[in-house]
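Service request form, structural biology core

Requester: graduate student, group of Dr. S.
Request type: structure prediction, single chain
Budget code: on file
Notes: please return the result as structure tokens.

Sequence provided:
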Amino acid sequence: MAAEIMDDRGVKIALSSAPTRLVSLLPSITESLCAVGRCDLIVGVDEYSNYPSRVKSIARVGSALSPNLELIISLKPDLVLMSSNSRLSQRLEHLGIKVIVINTVHSSDVRESLSKLDLIFRSNLGQALWKSIDSKITEASQTLPNKSKNLRVYFEVSPGPYAADPKSFIGETLTRLGVSNIVPSDIGDFPKLNPEFIVKENPDLIIISDNNYSDLIKRPGWGEMTAIRKNRVCALTKEQSDIVVRPGPRMGEGAKIIAQCILSKGLNS
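Core staff response, request fulfilled:
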């Protein structure tokens, strides 16, 4: 039975049969494919895909922004899954390779991406997975007592500084955990902030990757912030960061990591 999928460009892609040779150009898509039992169909992944461990042996085809087109073509995929990159998608489609663009900025996008996988593979595993993710986020929120609610949190996604805004999937997780995001909701997804704004907002808790942690106190004025003076900074390991910042099947685990961060800093009392 043929399937027709509307991707996040608004383009309809017709699939006469389920694909058997996949290239994934996003770590979150790679994880989602494996989580719905399609790891064995992946013949190429982006350079950042590293989970589950079995994908480490799959051919690397560059990144979404800098793909190796010749290598992708040589793998003879019947479907490439990627985020928005109009130039690459057009070139692949010109060569007769089907492309489905999936963007996952919000939690609803993640749910929709899993629905697309269900359509592609004629299954309901994606929606079952979403229910599990949603349940785990709820469980994480229930580990936090009311005393820890309404904490003001700054979540730094990457240097710049770029932050998780309230409408992003990370920001939505913070909201479900009951904490407050210092970033306004009207300045775009994962916005670059003025460092002085963060100092002025003086968050109760900072969450950042550990490779950027040592830089914090060197930033002008940051050493005077409450979170830094009281050691209320959670420096996520590389593994933890991968879990928390990827909009995919481990979002529930990401919520638990954030909840554990709050509890570990004594912010539950």
